[in-house]
Amino acid sequence: MQLPREVVVGEGVIERVPEIFHRLGFTESALIITGSKTEEVAGRTVRAILESEGLKVETLKVETATLRDVRAVEEEIKDLKPQVVLGVGGGTKIDVAKLSSARRKVPFISVPTTASHDGIASPLSSIKGLEKPYSIMAQAPIAIIADTNIITKAPYRLVASGCGDVIAKVTAVRDWKLARDEVGEYYGDYAASLALMSAELVMQNAQKIKPGNVEGLRVLLEALISCGVAMSIAGSSRPCSGSEHLFSHALDVIKPNNTMHGEKCGVGTIMMAHLHGLDWKRIRETLKTVGAPTNAKELGLTEEDVVKALFIAPSIRPERYTILSKLNLSMEECKRLAKQTEVI
Ligand code: ZN
Predict the structure, then answer these.
(1) Ligand 1 centroid to 229 CA: how many Å?
(2) Domains of the chain, earliest start first
(3) Distance, CA of 34 to CA of 140 (rounded, Å)
(4) What is the per-residue DSSP string for 14-44?
(5) Which residues surround ligand 1, an ion (CB under 5 A)?
(6) Parallel/antiparallel/unpaired status of strands 136-137 and 124-125
(7) pLDDT tens sequence across 93-136
(8) How does pLDDT run across 132-152, given as a tens digit for each residue?
(9) Measured in angstroms, how far is the CA atom of residue 160 from the centroid of ligand 1?
(10) Reduced DSSP (H G I as helix, E B as strand, rest coil) percent helix, strand, coil of the chain, to 5
């Protein structure tokens, strides 16, 4: 079990980088992975803080998260031999920093500039160009520094998307339980409870999750980080990714780069909750409250896209047993499900 040793969330916590580095024993060198925009938002600040502490710091910019990017960063790590790699940015920068540092056996620190998904704290990386359209094991961050003053500058839509990724745990955990009961899969109560509690807290605090509300953002960040920790405890994405994620991954195949991960997962959760006999209307209401999409139109998808994605979802990752594996829905049944939940 690999867990973060330092987790700081709050206003202005970026200023605490020196003490965190000191406690972790990083006093000589660091490599920052960031993007053009995120460098301005946070990368430059982090670099200045570390340099003022006497560290030798290099910055490498990446704009995508492909295997090529990972290899390029690995080469950089080989040359520079930094004590630690920081991923400063949203999804792609953190994913690339996490996997390349894991491959070179260098610790990784996550400095998220958005709250759009649980990858900011998880041990998994989502990299394009791999055989499978889902995340692979990398390593857990040794520290997570989530400054709400920085994250609040990102468009609100990313926050709403992050809520979708957390609410997804309601059905992900149900699917995990189902896999335990039906196919004897290992099930970890602690990891499952942690993921579920995160979803519950976001649902309870949905009214506070709105543009400009720091308290709501903090609830979401803590939930996303707890989800990341749940995956570290489980040693896989199981507590956080079930049939609703398979629906999202299927859409990634049908319509690549169409919309945000958490938005797709949120809509998937509405439908999978219906299949599980859960209160799907509560899921939909929560998504509406936080301003996340709840139907095909809001996701920029056609009816056919949704039905097809539901239909192919179980084949995306056949070894991941979910309610979709159990029910083996026909195209007609997929359509009925989407209609019943008013997704189409
Ligand atoms: Zn996710």
Answers:
(1) 13
(2) 6-151 (3.40.50.1970), 156-340 (1.20.1090.10)
(3) 18
(4) GGGHHHHHHHHT--SEEEEEE-HHHIIIIIH
(5) 165
(6) antiparallel
(7) 999 999 999 999 999 999 999 999 999 999 999 988 777 767 88
(8) 767 889 999 999 999 999 999
(9) 13
(10) 60, 10, 30
